[in-house]
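queue> pop job 88
queue> type: inverse folding (structure -> sequence)
queue> payload:
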């Protein structure tokens, strides 16, 4: 079905008849729902699209540790501290599975880091906003992990095997993360008026950036048509955004909060909410590197890379010595 929508150069859509036999066979396998595995032939554009998306996803998980990591020492109880620590560690794990999945496509971990540090590779816009209060940690779990789940559940059915399989465990862990965020907010809204106000303030600041996580609107999304034809993406950005709004608004009501959107209204005919447009100028500004925390986030990652240089050097020296010893032992045995 999607073969009818395959783009060539990002502008025109090619049909199966216009493809060479190898590419057509590939597209037919994708259309039939078969998984593509690392050593199999794939169009260069498919490989590049996956490297772009998976590496950016991995970078998002790693950079995404920073806003929450900021609160580990200030969590209000020992239990909350232990839970937050475990969550932030989970995000590191997600980044590592995803880097491994991207490596199967022929890019090295060092190249991916270089692309992040030079600003060539993006990471999710959401992590360029500051975490000002403890309620922000609840809001991240509830909204940011909630949006991540909405986007990632369909990725479990992605046509590329290693990415799809990495998503299974990641989605399970994100579900735990979302509940822990909601649990923080449930406690706070039952607390003092000041605590409840803190939660409303967090929702006011995180609502629109959360909607932006799904990417630009469909008519501005340059990659969607091709990625959907290749079954890398199963849904368009706007479809997932709509689902997220429909799922999240009743949760906000349950918490006794007001979603900061004057245009939000239940639409009986479509069976979903109508809602306002995110500020796309702000979104494009943030992904261009000019959000409130872009410089801080990238500097933290670059600093971590530089601080780890002695350890990488040590590992390399150890590996070289081990290889030499192995070589000498082999010669002696011959
Ligand atoms: N932020 O044509 P499209 C998480 C870029 S994980 C920054 O629509 P596409 C877990 C896009 O890359 C969150 N850039 O692109 C967690 C492209 O630029 P490029 C990350 C964005 O790929 C929770 C350009 O705009 N999740 O949160 C964003 O078809 C809590 C045009 O856009 C994933 O990465 C954005 N929001 O669709 C961790 C999921 N949106 O590359 C810690 C996998 C778009 O040409 C704490 N990724 N751009 O330079 C995807 O599903 C897709 O890549 C989309 C974008 C939907 C993000």
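queue> result:
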């Amino acid at each position: 079905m999607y073969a009818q929508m395959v783009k060539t150069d990002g502008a025109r859509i090619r049909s199966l008849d216009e493809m060479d036999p190898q590419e057509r066979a590939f597209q037919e396998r994708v259309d039939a729902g078969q998984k593509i595995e690392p050593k199999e032939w794939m169009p260069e554009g498919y490989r590049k699209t996956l490297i772009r998306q998976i590496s950016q996803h991995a970078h998002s998980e790693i950079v995404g540790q920073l806003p929450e990591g900021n609160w580990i020492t200030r969590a209000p109880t020992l239990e909350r501290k232990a839970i937050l620590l475990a969550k932030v560690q989970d995000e590191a794990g997600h980044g590592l599975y995803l880097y491994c999945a991207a490596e199967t496509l022929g890019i090295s971990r060092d190249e991916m880091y270089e692309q992040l540090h030079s600003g060539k590779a993006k990471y999710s816009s959401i992590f360029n906003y500051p975490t000002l209060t403890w309620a922000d940690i609840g809001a991240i779990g509830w909204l940011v992990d909630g949006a991540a789940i909405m986007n990632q559940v369909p990725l479990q059915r992605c046509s590329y095997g290693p990415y799809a399989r990495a998503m299974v465990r990641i989605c399970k862990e994100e579900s735990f993360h979302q509940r822990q965020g909601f649990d923080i907010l449930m406690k706070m809204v039952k607390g003092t008026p000041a605590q409840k106000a803190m939660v409303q303030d967090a929702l006011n600041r995180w609502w629109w950036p959360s909607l932006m996580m799904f990417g630009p609107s469909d008519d501005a999304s340059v990659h969607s048509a091709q990625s959907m034809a290749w079954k890398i993406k199963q849904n368009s950005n706007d479809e997932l955004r709509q689902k997220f709004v429909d799922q999240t608004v009743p949760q906000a009501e349950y918490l006794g909060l007001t979603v900061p959107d004057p245009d939000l209204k239940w639409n009986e005919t479509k069976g979903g909410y109508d809602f306002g447009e995110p500020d796309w100028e702000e979104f494009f500004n943030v992904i261009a590197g000019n959000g409130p925390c872009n410089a801080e986030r990238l500097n933290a990652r670059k600093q971590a890379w530089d601080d780890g240089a002695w350890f990488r050097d040590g590992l390399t020296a150890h590996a070289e010595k081990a290889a030499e010893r192995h070589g000498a032992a082999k010669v002696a045995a011959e």
